């Protein structure tokens, strides 16, 4: 059995559909979240809002996108890995790249029920700074804001 080679690179402006597929796969595994948008709406969103702005890095295996991380103004807005590729270090590689590219620090929101993600971010040095009842997010699900203060200079 050969080990898959994971490569990281900047997202291309025309990759909204591929980003939406990764997002859809990861979100489908989160049964506690409501489905708010169609697959086509996700393609439109990621094409217009993510693939064309901010810092977006993708992870590929054999030229197939398996994960991505998007950061805008110091906020990790998206970090998703296809469900079948989770637990293989891809999220850690993407987060590490984001942290290196944003040494002044990063913030993010994670759903309260996603304890696995919270533990992942804590291992990377993020700390909890706020909890909400979910009224401020589109899903209406309780969430946690976390922060990494960056590299000391």
How would you describe what is shown here?
- Helix content is 30%, strand content 30%.
- With 153 residues, the chain is α+β, with helices and mostly antiparallel strands.
- The protein has a single domain (6-148), classed as Aminopeptidase.
- Strand 4 (75-81), helix 3 and strand 5 form a beta-alpha-beta unit.
Instruction: Give the class-level CATH name.
Output: Alpha Beta
DSSP strand content: 25-35%
Helix-residue proportion: 25-40%
Strand order of the largest sheet: 1-2-3-4-5-7-6
Instruction: Report the end-to-end length measured between terminal Cα atoms.
Output: 44 Å
Structural class: alpha+beta
| The named CATH superfamily | Gcn5-related N-acetyltransferase (GNAT)
Output mean pLDDT.
93
In the CATH hierarchy, the third-tier topology is known as: Aminopeptidase
From N to C, what is the helix and strand string?
EHHEEEHEHEE
Rg for CA atoms: 15 Å
- Discrete helix count: 4
For the record, the count of structural domains works out to: 1
Strand count, sense and barrel status of the largest sheet are: 7 strands, mixed
Number of strand segments: 7
Q: Which blocks of ≥5 consecutive residues have pLDDT under 50? A: none
The CATH architecture is 3-Layer(aba) Sandwich
* Shape summary: globular
């Amino acid at each position: 059995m050969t080990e898959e080679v994971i490569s990281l690179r900047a997202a291309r402006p025309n990759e909204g559909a591929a980003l939406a597929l990764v997002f859809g796969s990861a979100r489908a595994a989160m049964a506690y979240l409501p489905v708010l948008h169609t697959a086509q709406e996700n393609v439109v969103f990621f094409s217009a809002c993510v693939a064309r702005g901010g810092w977006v890095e993708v992870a590929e295996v054999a030229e197939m996108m398996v994960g991505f991380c998007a950061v805008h103004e110091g906020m990790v807005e998206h970090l998703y890995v296809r469900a079948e590729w989770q637990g293989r270090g891809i999220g850690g590689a993407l987060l590490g790249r984001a942290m290196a590219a944003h040494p002044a620090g990063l913030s993010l929101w994670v759903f309260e029920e996603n304890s696995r993600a919270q533990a992942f971010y804590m291992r990377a040095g993020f700390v909890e700074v706020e909890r909400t009842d979910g009224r401020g997010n589109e899903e209406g699900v309780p969430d946690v804001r976390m922060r990494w203060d960056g590299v000391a200079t």
